[in-house]
Amino acid sequence: MRGSAAVIGGGVGGLAVAIGLLRAGWTVTVFERAAGLPEAGTGLGIWPSALRALDQLGVGAVARERGRAQPDGAMRRPDGSVIATLDVGRIRRRHGEGVLLLSRPALLGLLAQALAAGTVRFSSPVRDVAALADGYDVVVGADGIGSATRAAMFGARHPLRYSGMTAWRGTVAVEVPAGGETWGRGRKFGVTPQAAGVTNWYAAVTTPSGYRPPEGDLAALRRWFGDWHDPLPAVLAGVEAGGLLRHEVRYLPALPSYVRGRSVLVGDAAHAMTPDLGQGACQALIDAVVLAQALAGESDVASALARYDGLRRGPTQRMAAMAVRAGRLAQVRRFTGVRDVALRWALAFGPPG
């Protein structure tokens, strides 16, 4: 089947859907509200299943060329003692390759380069999803956690939920030998090598919704984490007040469907999950490939969207539930020994590759 598709949102899922549909002979227009692709952003871990999705889109080789292999890492306590290790070799043996580290701008850039000029209309927010649908066979909502497409499909019946944690993240011009996370009581700090001389960092702290540190974000981060093991003090010393992002960690409870009529959701619009498993971008890429294959392979739109929903809703909602449970471990303030055992178990099995 061939047809026309409007994709709302030019992020990872939206650009990947556009590539898949164009390769299948569809006519595609991507509506992106931003003026252009981002020039800065934090790092992403691309797991083997998402790398295979990139291969199916024809950009896997470029991704491997521009990214870097994730080295072994560790989960530690604030004093530096090891809770558990991340054995990348085991992931490679299980799935055929390891995890690729790629910045969000790099991933978006290579996806955008695979599209014909004019496919993405920047500075083009969609204010009326229903009106847009009249001109296309399919409308794909790839517009993120605050999806207007989802609201048009389901109204206000499925609001986001606060996870109980506030997160800060950014990049810093400090090099670390390996990535990992350090877990304290109700808070954690993570680092990931992003490029030569650049480290991706993030922190999460259990807080009530709406909390703002009275002394300011950066001063609070240094108070909470500044006496933890090396190299975390050096990472925090290199952070500038204007170089960090702050947001409350929210997630989307399970939707009854990813489809309504000729509208369909992918990525965070469908299953926004907490970042605790690092799977948001990965699942968006897989969504995109499955949706494009369904629309190319079925004889009508309704059958194709039903097939996509049947293949993706269950796995992504299970992944989102796993992420919520992992996030709750980080909020533990007592019985941290029991928590550490759970962390070792979780790291041993990990999310599906």
From TrEMBL:
Residues 5-76, 257-308 form the FAD-binding domain. InterPro entries: FAD-bd (IPR002938), FAD-dep_Monooxygenase_BioMet (IPR050493), FAD/NAD-bd_sf (IPR036188). Keywords: Monooxygenase, Oxidoreductase. GO terms for molecular function: FAD binding; monooxygenase activity. It holds the Pfam family FAD_binding_3. This is 2-polyprenyl-6-methoxyphenol hydroxylase. It comes from Micromonospora radicis. The lineage of its organism: Bacteria, Bacillati, Actinomycetota, Actinomycetes, Micromonosporales.
